[in-house]
Amino acid sequence: MDVLKEVGNIGAGNAATALSQLLGKPIDMAVPKVQLLNFEEITDKVGGAEELVYAVFLRVEGEAPGNLFFILTPEAAINLLSRIAGIELTGNGELGEMELSALNEIGNILAGSYLSSLADFTSLSMYPTVPALAMDMAGAILSYGLLQFGQMGDDALLIDTTFLEGHNEIEGQFFLIPDPESFPKIFKALGVPFDND
Amino acid sequence: MIEEQNVIKVGMADLNVGSEESLVRTTGLGSCVGVTLFDPGKKLAGMAHVMLPSSEIAREGQMNIAKFADTALPELLSRLLALGAVRSRLVAKMAGGSQMFAFAGGSDTMRIGPRNVESCKLALEALNIPLIAEDTGGNFGRTIEIACNTGILYIRSVQKGTKEI
């Protein structure tokens, strides 16, 4: 578990740097949590199955496949966009096509940065698919990342990193859910014996 | 949709039953399918939150039968029969099975929503329970609840608001 935390740390560190550069201001990152959680607990992490979130989803392919989500609350998405692109959103906070496209690309850059550092660290090939963006109920979005685990049991391994900008405001979370068959490969790549702890 | 009513929750890969004044609810269905069975005579209803199409792909030791279409629906049926539901009166409704993310090409996992819907229909056919209404597909999440006294299935989504089937 400590090894996976370190892996998450390195990935998130790079993504935080990328985000700092994009925003032109320092971004802090919480120490990643690596947990084996049941499906309900995973959606609770973003405020419950019905909580509205923006999510950029990338399927990770290569030697250690998995699912990567960059999750933002609607407020955080609007903050991010207004700071980077200088877009002031009007009306009811709905994002238009341009804003969504920008958000997708920001998510893509951050996720790519996260993933490439993990790949470097583990010497495993990990490459992302084209990102997809959705704004919907967290349960509906995250359940998509749990399907591979669904064949095995009711728990999934989650590497969860939260980004903070300024105060205690949650800007965004990375959820990496490696496929079950990826753990032994990640452990082996890091020279650590694999157990289910 | 009266909040004071007794709400019975169904989690992901879970199933449950209720009677009379209660509501049976599951939240945040994406590619999963919520299947409900209803006996109008006894005012009994049950719901399964189906995650995967078939238990044949299960690799777990202790299998969660609520998770798979082919095992969840027979279990839901027997739970309702145990409460006194009359089999010949049961009718089914379902919602969910969307594709949350659109990708070009796409593996089997990407098409899991439509496959879940198909498998639930086959499972209902095998049990000889008529499917009288459905709200499936699309690319959005749904929260659904069934009123055990009326059998009305309420469907709430971010994009489309609330509807009843």
Describe, in plain words, how this protein is organized in 3D.
The complex is a heterodimer of chains A (197) and B (165). Chain A is α+β, with helices and mostly antiparallel strands and 197 residues long. Chain A is built from seven helices and eight strands. In chain A, strands 1, 2, 3, 4, 5, 6, 7 and 8 form an eight-stranded antiparallel sheet that branches. In chain A, strand 7 (155-164) and strand 8 form a beta hairpin. In chain A, helix 1 (2-23) crosses helix 4. The longest helix of chain A has 26 residues, at 97-122. The N and C termini of chain A lie close together (7 Å). Chain B is of the alpha+beta class and 165 residues long. Chain B is built from two helices and ten strands. In chain B, the strands form two sheets. Chain B has a five-stranded mixed sheet, with no helix packed on it. A five-stranded mixed sheet of chain B has the order 2-5-4-6-7, covered by helices on one side. In chain B, strand 6 (91-96), helix 2 and strand 7 form a beta-alpha-beta unit. The model of chain B has no long low-confidence stretch (mean pLDDT 88). The A-B interface holds A 39-40, 43, 48-50, 52, 57, 59, 129-130, 132, 134-141, 143-144, 146-148, 150-154 and B 11-13, 27-32, 51-52, 57-60, 62, 64, 67, 98, 100-104, 109, 112, 139-143, 158-159. Chain B: This is Probable chemoreceptor glutamine deamidase CheD.
